[in-house]
Amino acid sequence: MTTFADISTDESAATAPAVAYPTPLLRIEAVTKTFGGFVAVDGLSLDIQAGEFFALLGPSGCGKTTLLRMLAGFETPDSGRILLDGTDIAAVLPHQRPVNMMFQSYALFPHLNVRDNISFGLKNAGLTRLGIDSRVAEMLDLVKLNDLQTRRPHQLSGGQKQRVALARALARRPQLLLLDEPLAALDKKLREETQTELIALQRRLGTTFVIVTHDQDEAMKMADRIGVMSHGRLEQVATPRQLYEAPETRWVAGFVGDVNLIEGEVTLQDGYRLTVATAGAGTLIAAEPRQPLAGSAICLAIRPEKIRLARRGPAVERGHTGAMNSVEGTVSEVGYLGGLSVYRIKLDHGGTLRAALANTARLDVDAYSVGQHVVAWFAPDDCVVLPR
Length: 388
Ligand SMILES: Nc1ncnc2c1ncn2[C@@H]1O[C@H](COP(=O)(O)OP(=O)(O)O)[C@@H](O)[C@H]1O
Ligand SMILES: [Mg+2]
Hints:
- The chain is elongated, with a radius of gyration of 25 Å.
- It is built from ten helices and 20 strands.
- Helix content is about 25%, strand content about 35%.
- A hairpin with a 2-residue loop joins β4 and β5.
- Adenosine-5'-diphosphate binds near residues 35, 62 and 66.
C-alpha cells in the first residue's frame, strides 16, 4: 500500500527542478497584470522545464488567459519578468518569440482553406516555397487532415477546426506552445479522444506545452504538472497525484476532486501520529509527517474513495485506539453512478461523510441502502492535515 509519506518522498524529485534542470525553458518571475485597478495576475512566479506538458487549472476569471497572453506577447506585464531560456523577452514582439498560441476560439481565417490557414504564418517566417509546401504537408499528416486541405473552416466540424488551429500553431515549430482551453468546444467523447492524441503528439514532438483548462479531469489526464490558479495567484504547483493526494490548502483539496473536510483541534502529537478532536466525527487519528501541530486548529481532508463501509466495522481494532479510524452513522443518501456508488452518511456525532465505493459485482449484495446503520472506516494515512 502506498502511504501518504511515500507519496511525498517519491515525487518530491519531480518538483525540485533546480536539481535536475539548471535553466528552465520558461521562467515567470513575480509577474503582475492589472486592468484599471483590477489585479488579473498577482505577483505570479513559475518555472516550466523544456519538454514539459504543463496545465494551468483554475476557475473562470482567475487570470489564466491573461497569463498566456503575456507569455505570447499580446499583453505586457505591469511588473515582473518573463525569461525564455534565461533571456528576458519583454522587448521581443509576439511573432518573433519562439512561442505560439492556440486560441480558445481557434481564430481561423474564414476565407482561407485548411492548407492556407496552416501556411499563413510561414510566409513571413523566411521559408522558401518548397520549404513551406513540405512543412504544410508534414502538419497535414500530423493532424490527419490530408483529405480536407481545400475545405474552408465553415465546411469543417468542431474537431476538424481544432486540428487546423493546432496545425497552424505548430507549423512554425515553436519551442513553447500555449493552448487556451483547446478542447472546450468539443463534445465529451471527441474531447477525450483528442486529449489522448494531444498527449501522443506532445511526446512525439517534444515541444513544451502549456495548456489552460478549467476542467480538472483534463488537467489530471494530460499534464506532467499542474499549476492551480485562483484570483491571479498559484495556489499549488504539483504532479496530478500530489495535487490530489497531498493538496496543500483547503481550497485546492476542494477544487481538485471530491473531498470530505472535517474541522478539528490537535489534542496530541506523537511523532507522525496526531490525535484530532472533531465536533462532527469524534476523535480521529491522522498520520502527518509535515508540521508540528499540537494545539492547533486544523482541517482533515479525506477523499470519498478512501473510506470503506461495513455493516459492523473492521473485525479487529475498532474505535480510534487501533490502527483505523471508525465512525458510525446512518446512510442518508445513495447515488448510483454505474461504476461507483456514492453514499452520504449522517454520523452519530453529527457530521456527514461521503464515501465512494466501486460496484465490483453486478448484483447489489454489497450495496447499502438509505436508513441502514453502518461503520465508516479509514486509515490515518488517508487523512490529509490542512491549515484551517
Ligand atoms: N482586457 C481586459 N480588460 C479588463 N479586464 C480584463 C481584460 N482581460 C481580462 N480581464 C479581467 O481579468 C480577469 C481574468 O481574466 P482571464 O485571464 O480571461 O481569466 P480566465 O482565462 O482564467 O477565465 C477577469 O476578471 C477579466 O474580466
Ligand atoms: Mg480564459
